[in-house]
Amino acid sequence: MTTGIIILIVAVVIVLWVIGVYNGLVRLRNNRENAFANIDVQLKQRYDLVPQLVATVKGYAAHEKELLEKITLARTAAMGATNINEKIAADNQLSSALAGLKVSVEAYPDLKANQNFMQLQTELADIENKLASVRRFFNSATKELNNAVQTFPGNLLAGIFGFHTEPMFEVSKEERAMVEKAPTISF
């Protein structure tokens, strides 16, 4: 009789432990998805702003057609992405295209002085700052999930329940090259 009670208690403890680990992994996965939803909100604002920016620049920089088409295509691809990993890749392409626009604008002093363009640039800079913040939060949530999936005791159950490590939101290769390059300062 006592052996049966001990076995029952051990079984209940193991079941409760499995439930606790599983629920913790679910919470972490949902936290990561919520963090990406915050990125989606900022990306939507960015996608809405890009056509206005492109239209303004078109008036001044007619021969920059290829760059403007690249931005438009990157925006379309980003809006059509269906999962987190596709959205990350598409956003990296759009970020790279927008960086090319910033460089190109330097050749147009009239455009840089245009009030509409300046307002759009300010809004875009604000959105980019917000994106950087929510990306950091997303990466933090991803790190927490990955740690739980890879460390004991979560690693014992993660694979069984279909949890796996997830990719971080990283800077694209093009952006990394630009970030690692020393800025040119001229007066």
Brief description of this entry?
With 187 residues, the chain is mostly helical.
Can you characterise this structure?
The chain has 187 residues and is mainly alpha-helical. Helix content is 81%, strand content 0%. The protein contains seven helices and no strands. It has helices spanning 2-60, 65-80, 84-105, 109-113, 115-150, 154-158, 173-180.
Keywords:
187 residues; mainly alpha; 81% helix
Total strand segments: 0
The ordered string of helix (H) and strand (E) elements is HHHHHHH
Form type: rod-shaped
Number of helical regions? 7
Q: Strand percentage, roughly? A: under 5%
The class by helix and strand makeup works out as mainly alpha
CA radius of gyration is 24 Å
Residue stretches low in confidence (pLDDT < 50, at least 5 long) are: none
Our measurement of the CA-to-CA distance between the termini, rounded to an integer number of angstroms, reads 89 Å
Helix percentage: over 70%
Mean pLDDT: 85
Major pleated sheet: none
